[in-house]
Amino acid sequence: MEALNYCTHAIEGLQNSAQNFMQDMPSTHKNILRVAELLKQAIKFRLPDNGDLFEDGLRALPAIFRLPYPIVAAEFQITSNGLGQGPLAICGETLDRSTKRIALAIEINADNYDIYSWMLSPQKYDLLTSDGAIAIIPVFYVDAKQHWAIPPLGIVIPSRKIDDNTILFNKTKELYGGSLPQGVKRLPLEIHATDLMPEYASKLEQENGLSYVMATAQQDSHDESRAILGLIEILSCNNVSTATIEAPKSLNKRRTAKGKVPMFEFKVLTLDFQDSPEATTKSLGGTHASPRIHLRRGHIRRLPEKNVWVNATVVGNRKMGVVMKDYSVNPNIELGGKNDK
Predict the structure, then answer these.
(1) Strand ranges inside 90-222, DSSP E
(2) CA angle (7, 9, 14) in 5-degree steps
(3) Where are the strands (E) in 220-265, listed by range?
(4) Given this model, what pLDDT does residue 58 score?
(5) What is the pTM (predicted TM-score) of this model?
(6) Are 291 and 271 in contact (CB under 8 A)?
(7) Secondary structure class of 309 (helix, strand, coil)
(8) Residue 284 scores a pLDDT above 80
(9) Do the Cβ atoms of 197 and 205 come closer than 8 Å?
(10) What are the pLDDT digits (tens) for 297-322?
(11) Beta bridge partners of 138
(12) Where residue 149 falls among pLDDT bands split at 50, 70, 90?
């Protein structure tokens, strides 16, 4: 699977752009540098295009969910319209196109709150008292301006699914102008906005009102939150693991010598097939012989004691090789890196 290396370029870009805010927006300046540092620390994942793992309304998301690592950066490219499906895009507001995305996610709990208090106000500390929360910070490349940026707001999601809540549902509908558009699913989650660019967020609220600020947070985090929650959900399957693709050592040696940010190793999702001569599943109606395994989108089958990933289309004989599409297939072989269960 091709490396995107978005984190490397985003770190460089954010470190440079932070200087533009030092004088007039000092809190924003600090937060941009904080985000760049978090990108360095994060475990990187390469996700399929559009961060699109599947759409099932998070039905298989564990009742109490956790990130696979304390800090995760999920990279993916946008091949659709580049605007996402958030409320501002749906309502027709003019938005900047962004085709390179990073979903930066941080697990926050009572033990590490002091470190991350800059993104979660003391008034919202109660979100952490039971199961903790996950902060999601979108980091994106503005195509027209050719630079990396963060939005004025991110989101914080308490790490527990909630029962159907009419009040929250009605508030979500308000963000979309009164009704949820087709394709936008009702999710069993409580979502809170968090200031990443406090000075700018305050200006937005003064000029447009709180509802617009919330719609902005929802818009900017829509694709990234879906990607992170989908990653958590798919890793709950007992036949899904990860493989680590190592960073290029010789290239990094040259980059380090020039004072540049290195390329990072990254993880890809792998699907473990049973060791059988013919690793096949039912095709979607074709009659021709397919010499290789093609892995495409699938769904989660929820069993009493575990979740299992089921392929929508897997056809062929694994002995003839593997065609890598959205995911990597692990027929008991190495994927150019160490395999992580």
Answers:
(1) 100-108, 133-142, 147-149, 153-158, 192-195
(2) 90
(3) 240-245
(4) 74
(5) 0.79
(6) no
(7) strand
(8) no
(9) no
(10) 456 676 767 776 665 433 344 444 33
(11) 103
(12) very high
